[in-house]
Amino acid sequence: MRGSSFARFLVAGGVNSGATYGLFVVLSWWMPPSVAYSLVFLSGIALSYVLNTAFVFRTRASIGSAVRFPGVYLVQYLTGLALLTLLVRWGVDSRVAMPLTMCVTVPLTFVLSRRVLRSPARRAESAPAPDRLPV
């Protein structure tokens, strides 16, 4: 089950990347690239929320998860920035460091998204049962 949701996560990420890039190209015809990027970044988080709730994790959207969801991308950004900075300081070429960073941030984003979007009841259902001693 996890493998299939991770595959859906990768597909949703590809769709989101393509859609937001296309929107960036269109917006950058009429506004400065920095403004277009900011609008696209925010719309990308919103689209990611919709795709992750409806397609990836097949859960219901809620105000609570919608408020917490941008935090996933804040953690992803800060983790990626820190790791990329460290790798480059350690002498790794940035063109190699970036894919290495993505190997950490993509699964991290998946795990955090799943945690934010799944209801507490569903998280409890999928958690391993605690070891119990016979009585």
TrEMBL record:
Similarity comment text for this entry: Belongs to the GtrA family.
Protein name (Swiss-Prot/TrEMBL): GtrA family protein
Upper lineage: Bacteria, Bacillati, Actinomycetota, Actinomycetes, Streptosporangiales
Organism field: Microtetraspora fusca
Domain GtrA/DPMS transmembrane per the UniProt entry, residue ranges: 8-116
Protein localization: Membrane
Record key words, sorted: Membrane, Transmembrane, Transmembrane helix
Highest taxon listed in the record's lineage: Bacteria
Pfam families found in the cross-reference section: GtrA_DPMS_TM
